[in-house]
Amino acid sequence: MRFGVLGPLTVWTPDGDPVVVPEARVRVLLARLLVAPGRVVSADRLVDDLWGDALPSNPANALQTAVSRLRRAIGTDLVVRRPPGYLLNVPLDAVDSGRFAELGSRARRRTAAERQAALLDEALGLWRGDAYAGFADEPFARAAAAALEEQRLVVWEDYAEARLRLGDHAALAGELRHLVEQHPLRERLRAAQLRALHGAGRTTEALDGYRELSRLLRDELGLDPGAELAALHQDILRGEPSAPSRQQLSLVPPPAPLPASPTALVGRDGAVAEVRTLIGTHRMVTLTGLGGVGKTRLALEVARSQDEVCFVELAGLPRDATLDGVADLVAAALGIRDGAHHSRPYAERLAGALRGRQLLLVLDNCEHIAEPVAALVPQVLSAPGVRVLATSREAIGVSGEHLWEVPPLDIPSPGAPPTDVLRSGAVQLFAARAAAASPGFSVSADNAGTVAMICRRVDGIPLAIELASARIRVLGTAGLAERLDDRFAVLTGGPRDAPPRQRTLRAVLDWSWELLTAAEQTVLRRLAIFADGCSLDAAETLCSGDGVHPSQVLDLLARLVDRSLVVVTHTADGPRYRLLESVAAYGEQQLASEERDRLQYEHATYYTSFAAEAAGHLCGPDQQRWLRRLDTETGNLRRALTDDRFRPQLARALVWYWFLRGRLSEALRATVPEDNAVLAAWHAGFRLLSGERTEGHAAAHLHDAVTDPHERAMAGWFLGYATTRYDDPAVGEALIRAALAEFESLGDRWGIAAALSVRALQRYVRGELDSAATDAERSLAVFGETGDRWGRIQAGAVLGRLAEIAGDYPAATVWHREGAELAEELALWPEVSLRWSELGRMALLQGDHTRADELHQRGRTLAVEHSDPAGQEFAEVGLALSARRRGRFAEAEALLRPWLEWNRRFEADNGAALILAELGFAAEQRQEADTALDLHTEGLAAARRTGDPRAIALALEGLAGACLIAAQPDRAEDLLDAATRMRESTGAPLPPAERRDVDRIRAGILLQSQPTDHRL
To answer: Checking DSSP bridges between strand 386-391 and strand 359-364, what pairing results, if any?
Structure first.
């Protein structure tokens, strides 16, 4: 695929055919990813760029939908999910803007004017109109378009100077007229026009142009033309031949060559291309980022593509260096000698010496002398042909500075397959350096997961990866991974020729730490107490003290963000502040024992209070927001749970959250009963939901042991819900009956609705359809009043199944689709899985097997992704139902057999009865009489234990079919009649799919009952 942004957004196939990208929002997403192809754009940034203040109800889901539609349009492999967002996985030259930048860069490396002009003409020919045409209202597009327009003008100036060298004055003078009218204050462009006019014999027009520019500069900016234009003016007055500025002779000797790189730069192709583009459009670019992230290496690689470069290493200067001290070092690197006259300051003399030169000045490691560098840069940039590329752990802070934060290398997501791991820049660097340290090492399917984990643990920081890979020879990948908890002892031994601050990970962080004020150090080390970041409120609460007032924390955080020591992300609930793992480990080591103990207590206190507040909002209209906030704080909540002083209270506050999110293992670990009756009841309920049975009436006794009325009602409801689904239905009915009475006595409307929804399910299973409908409708109404969307899903699920039994498949589809939408809004993925599979059942009942398989497969995928065996079972049984009805008996049996054993293990008779019926029908249709009889007999026993008349009827119908192929037509007819009476007792019609089985069996009975000659 090729992409165009130099004009209207366009996509072409490799053959040049246009590709349609439907929907405006999807086109905005593509345009945003094309701003930086190959680079990750965070999900938060994409949501902000796509929706702004008009956020959808579930931004994450809405973004996923837009990404899916874009993948369908341009190819699934081009839009890649990579934390913390997405990237467009195409080379830079697949986008016309990247091709444009590359052609411009190649032209600047050429010396022959003919070749320069040809390359630049090709570059300008890529433009089809205004950049990002059609996206003028998008802030990201305005910025990108402005940068490209600036780059276009620079290329035009280069193109004009190349053609001047070729003597193409007359034509060029005409071509530049319109551009100069559009950009009348652009001095380099105006200089090219004046030279073209003068060279074409139109000297009067050239002098008029100079006078016009002088007037505009004076009137609009209060400035005079620069020295280069003034000199050109004098040349024109004297009638001297025109020549381009870049060919003017300089008495200044060339700078020293760039330092050689001992190894190849890995994983930075996109970054190199982007920064090269930036230095073509901005005169001052600063690469910022954490120490060891690779700022210097990136700057050197970018600089190698430039014609004239001077590299100045500033790390050796003391922190009290002055402006003249910095200017002296820069002059020495440039080869400029101090003259005999000292009437002007050194920095001004340096700037004067640079006039007339086309030079990229690279200032490396500026962070410790930012003030004198900030004083020098404007004077250096007063020379029109000079550009500055700086590296620093924070901004230099001068006008016109363009910041570009060097990110860590991209790291694989947890659980990524080996093919994805090998595409990661961090893994590629690790593999290259490890192979150099330990010949023969390679990343394979066996060690890919461990290597990926190592790269994540060191945050994708190139220096840390290089230090880690050097240890492979003595530790191996597994040993290295185990020792990263003590990373500062392991990540040592950098090259002896490296600066001391880059030989160990600790030294890198020491350098940054020593540049901080005492207040900044206080906030940074206290941030280490958090897991996976914190909100501003949490930071102000826990990071204040020791002379830092809470009101000062925000400003200190901003300064730490500027120094690349703190990562800030913007969420729907406000900013979050996070430390990379290595910085967090360093900060934790700066905590004194007493301070650490106090912070741990304050941390557990804060998050226990937070969880208690959240629990009060999880059963009402703010459910979605508080689920999201609890998701975000999962790391901090888990850390707080390790404090035994807070665990019981915190666990109780989180049980409903764990239930809604399906985090059963976590709930079981945290609710270990000990002497807490409330936790004991919840723990038992979570065990039931995890597939463990209770002994006798243990659940009822646990309910009775809770003394607080509200806690007892909630515990009774939860145990009743769990036993209804996975244990003894009779015990479940008794518990729900008691819970409903308790909620009614307390006046708890939410509790009443919850109990009614479970009772509706119980009555539905028993075949009491009218009573089930009454309970479900009441439950839905009350949940609607309280604003609880989870509750609406539960009640709607029962109403959907009742509509299904009544044969009203359109109504059932509406209920299940609404449930799926509500569950998606809340990110309740197990519920979403079940609803998709329910919709699959509706399609199956209506004979649309293709649609049924698609929906069931969607449900299965979600269930597998979220480790939900119940959802996976429901989806795969649905796929088996479809396969069996289309005669694919082996496929159906392969799907059903594992789940039969699963249901038997849990003694889940409802599930077992259906599976046994399906397996029996498959055996019958293959004419396997004995097998069919055994399966249907076992299925009938399971169905009778459930008491569900529909399950019993299905088993009887299956047994009738088995008797038929066993040549027992009379018994088959009796069984079929019994099944018919059982179904009539429910008042529900026979579903079409099951009617076909019944009709087939009844036709077989009639056929076997006729005389032989008639059958013939």
So the answer is: parallel
Kindly state whether residues 572 and 608 are assigned to the same domain.
no
CA separation for the pair 759, 721 (Å, rounded): 9
Q: What is the β-pairing status of strands 386-391 and 284-288?
A: parallel
Structurally, how many domains does the chain consist of? 5
384-406, pLDDT tens digit by residue? 888 999 999 989 999 889 999 99
Cα–Cα distance measured from residue 47 to residue 41, given in angstroms and rounded to the nearest whole number: 10
Determine, yes or no, domain membership for 251: no
Question: What long-range pairs does 878-881 form, CB within 8 A, spacing at least 24?
Answer: 878/837, 878/840, 878/841, 878/844, 878/852, 879/853, 880/918, 881/841, 881/844, 881/918, 881/993
Residue 1007 pLDDT grade (very low, low, confident, very high; cuts 50, 70, 90) = confident
- Nearest Cα to 804, choosing from 762, 755, 759, 837? 837
Which tokens in the block code for residue 868? 């939900």
pTM of the model: 0.72
Kindly report the number of other CB atoms within 10 A of residue 889's CB atom: 18
Paired tokens of 326: 């910095």
Q: Which domain holds residue 359?
A: 269-405
* Same domain membership, residue 596 and residue 576: no
The verdict on 496 and 525 lying in the same domain is no
Q: What CATH number does the domain containing 294 carry?
A: 3.40.50.300
759 lies in a domain?
no
Same domain, 369 and 275: yes
Residues 552 and 577 in one domain: yes
Nearest to 188 by CA among 435, 400, 389, 358: 358
- Measured CA to CA, the distance from residue 103 to residue 123 in angstroms comes to 6
- Residue 382 falls within a domain, yes or no? yes
In this structure, are residues 472 and 480 in contact, taking their beta carbons and an 8 Å threshold?
yes
- Taking only the tens place, the pLDDT of each residue in 1-15 is 899 999 999 999 888
Give the relative orientation of helices 505-514 and 581-589 as an angle to the nearest 10 degrees: 70
Dist. CA 765–CA 939, nearest whole Å: 16
**426 and 534: one domain?**
no
User: Domain ends where: 382, 405, 428?
Assistant: 405
Judgement on whether residues 380 and 289 belong to the same structural domain of the protein: yes
Find tokens 């004239």 and name the residue. Answer: 308
d(CA 783, CA 1009): 56
618 with 531, same domain?
Answer: no
- Inter-residue contact 189 to 213 (CB < 8 Å): no
Q: Torsion angle of alpha carbons 241, 245, 250, 255, nearest 10°?
A: -160
Say if 741 falls within a structural domain.
no
Strands 85-88, 284-288: pairing kind: unpaired
Domain edge (last residue) among 581, 611, 631? 581
Strand order in the sheet with 309-313: 309-313, 359-364, 386-391, 284-288, 401-405
Which residues, 6+ apart, have CB-to-CB distance to 201 below 8 Å? Answer: none
pLDDT band at 938 (very low <50, low <70, confident <90, very high): very high
Given a contact cutoff of 8 angstroms between Cβ atoms, the answer to whether 394 and 345 are in contact is: no
* Tally of CB atoms within 10 A around 407: 17
